[in-house]
Amino acid sequence: MALGARVSAPENRAEQVPTHIARAPEDVATHGELPSYGLVASSAATERTGSHSGIRLVLPPPISANRYWRSFVPRGGSRAITCVSDEARAYKRDALKLALAAGVRSPIRGRVALDVQLYPARPLDWAKRSRKDPDGWADSVRCIDLDNVLKVLLDALKGVAFGDDSWVRSLHAQRMEPDEHGARVVVTISPLVRERVAPELPL
Length: 203
Prior knowledge:
two-stranded antiparallel ribbon; CATH 3.30.1330.70; 21% helix; 6 strands; alpha+beta; 4-stranded mixed beta sheet; disordered N terminus
């Protein structure tokens, strides 16, 4: 059950990508708190689907965009320098390793559409919460905000699943209900083919 809101989405996108998907192992599933970054990174499953008919990956949840940059004053310096944090670099490296393990060898060239599904970790008391509030229990589950996910995720996939941010022409992001497969983000990257108008036939 989706709990998020649509940013924008192309029509009939689901038909462009095969529907099967590898899931994260069940031992990543329920620990009350969000699983550690290293645990999920080492356990998340990934799979390539087709030859540029689309790519679907299951990745560990990204770090927050608030931790994407870090600032420091170099020794002997007087001004702070801002650069990409070590955590952000590590997430990008892990995303690349998982994509390579899934069989992704080159990014999709040209325009793409992204579908992002963010799954929070299911707490140990989820059944109790569900009985108390069947329709809204998932709202009380701790989860990183969607807007904080996208910046780090797009940066990690740039040059891996698609060529550049400028080629992302459609983006659909939603927060999902926690399930038995643990905290993860499922990303589907679909090529967008531009339609060409056929020349008019001579009379």
